[in-house]
Description:
The chain is an alpha/beta fold. 41% of the residues lie in helices and 15% in strands.
Amino acid sequence: xxxxxxxxxxxxxxxxxxxxxxxxxxxxxxxxxxxxxxxxxxxxxxxxxxxxxxxxxxxxxxxxxxxxxxxxxxxxxxxxxxxxxxxxxxxxxxxxxxxxxxxxxxxxxxxxxxxxxxxxxxxxxxxxxxxxxxxxxxxxxxxxxxxxxxxxxxxxxxxxxxxxxxxxxxxxxxxxxxxxxxxxxxxxxxxxxxxxxxxxxxxxxxxxxxxxxxxxxxxxxxxxxxxxxxxxxxxxxxxxxxxxxxxxxxxxx
Length: 253
């Protein structure tokens, strides 16, 4: 049986087709070996030092994880996978609608950067996510849990304006206030459509226009490294989410 952690030859060709990623700098290990090790850590939740011996040494893997995340390679890979999947469905490569939401996650280590979400009674971090109409990941931002949704989503909107200007409509819950909608319309020329949550009901009722982002959060829960926040810094926690998003999107290729 094929190991689900390993990249297939088609996935490897897709990643190698991404421009401006100079694989020649990896002299001892291939890109596939390093990325497989990073994905193993995110999928299984194992510590870096506990990587199996069939992978490269953990210090080498961690070095490349930090280097690639700082250079934005995971985001560029995710962009390529998103456009490829939308193209295979006959959709425009650049989405016109984005669905936004946030998720508060408890911190698992005492010395990590964290805050308290007073509404959900969670001490940890908050993930601000934007997906397309199919639930495929576009971009993510990670803040402490005490940051309000309207503040935490601002870097995501800035990234959309810079890299995906085709997004003109955002859908979210009532946590994004009317005042924020007015600011968004005047500053970014985007329209915000809010949908009331059905929290407190006794049955599952999909929220029109918003349920796909909730499903995307449930996809991330399949990666054990993300069930709690095990990272000391926010930028590392954000990179872990990006790796999980890339690993999920690779399933379609």
